[in-house]
Description:
Shape: globular
Number of helices: 15
Number of strands: 17
Strand content: 15-25%
Helix content: 25-40%
Distance between the termini: 44 Å
Largest sheet: 7 strands, mixed
Structural class: alpha/beta
Amino acid sequence: MSRNYDVIIAGCGAAGLYAAINLPPQTKILMLCKKELSLCNSSLAQGGIAGVYNSPNDNIQYHQNDTLIAGGFKNNVEAVHTLVSEAAQDIERIIELGVEFNKNPDGTYHRTLEGGHSHHRIFHHADSTGAEIASKLLAYVQTLGNVEIMENTLMCAVKQTSTGYSAFLKKQDDTYETANCRFMILATGGIGRVYQFTTNSAIATGDGITFAYEMGAKIKNLSYVQFHPTAFNNRATRECFLISEAVRGEGAYLLNCNKERFMHNYDERLELAPRDVVSHAIVLESRKQGSQEFFLDISYKDSEFLKNRFPMIYNNLLDQGYDLTKEPVPIFPCQHYLMGGIDVDGNSETSLPNLFACGECSHTGVHGGNRLASNSLLEALVFSRHAANCIASRLDDAPRELEEAQFDAHIGSSRIPKGIRTETRKIMQESHFVIPDKQKAAEGFKRVREIRDDLLGGGYLVDADYVLAKSIVTCAYIILGEVMR
């Protein structure tokens, strides 16, 4: 069974949803959701969305400079300028679509501060901004008659055709079908599950990056991985609960195992240094003290203020046995965000014609070597709009008839060996954490290459285990390969 569409969008986070909203209403769109619709990294974003919008004391040059400084000046300056100069129109648009941000008593929008920002420019919905944006965008998309959403549908493979792209889909009932399109947007999120510990949801396995790589699209700076300094330190679970940057923005202190502040020994910006600087400082202090016990303390602030400002964080920590208003909370860095990805131009188009990538799976060059806090939701909106506009300009000239690629779910009958993902995650955790270990990276690359060669040539059944393992291993292979160069 097959289906034909103008556009297939893989991913139902902020980037994918906003692309669908900005495509012309006559466009026939298929949106693919790997799991349930509520599960995406966008929904996990706590802090907010950065942008200069009705800001009398701020300007886009300040925002641009902060982004470049945080990125170590490895950013694409043109892309950064696009991001900061177009922030206002997309923030205004999502407000029109129903997104609610916190306001001051006088009715103006409350803007908070996060590490690396020189001004209060973070729009937020308490401490669950991503969930607010994703839910309101989804609600709007669900009213659009030209958009079909397939939930709990795994994209197993993608092939380029003479007329566009074909996607091989495994549906919730374990049946397979092919969907064809003139244009494809990959908005599949990050690679968090390549690591043992991450703030990302279970779907962040790098699928879109893997499909693009397999088709020959350019991948850039995949080794630019951001480790968030203040993940709740509970090593009992792979998915670590994030304690937002905004907590430090409101005055929280970082403490070492002796319950002493230490950031003054590493950076004059103290707790408000960019994420990579703070993560490096924690790891260096860990080595100095011989302990991985670190804490975040904001208990000196008014308890009612904290409960109202960080309701989700407060309640989640209570569930873990900690009261943010009364005591320090254990934290340690873990994988959080990907700055590299599928390389795209200013229209979010990859090196393959009519294949676009948006959001965390893409490399726009905006973030450089380290993402400035709360620029990711903004990037998802701005550049998915660019992708939609570019596609809209080409729709009239796109082929009417679509070629369909051939796929086979039963290349082999055996399932992949157990433990592939666990072994790969251990390799990545040990070799490419906050301060990479070149020797372990070399050893890890050799082993990951062996695993990948077996997956590609082993004749395994193309099921969910195979697809996700191949994605994780391929991303690890690309990252460690970059490190080796």
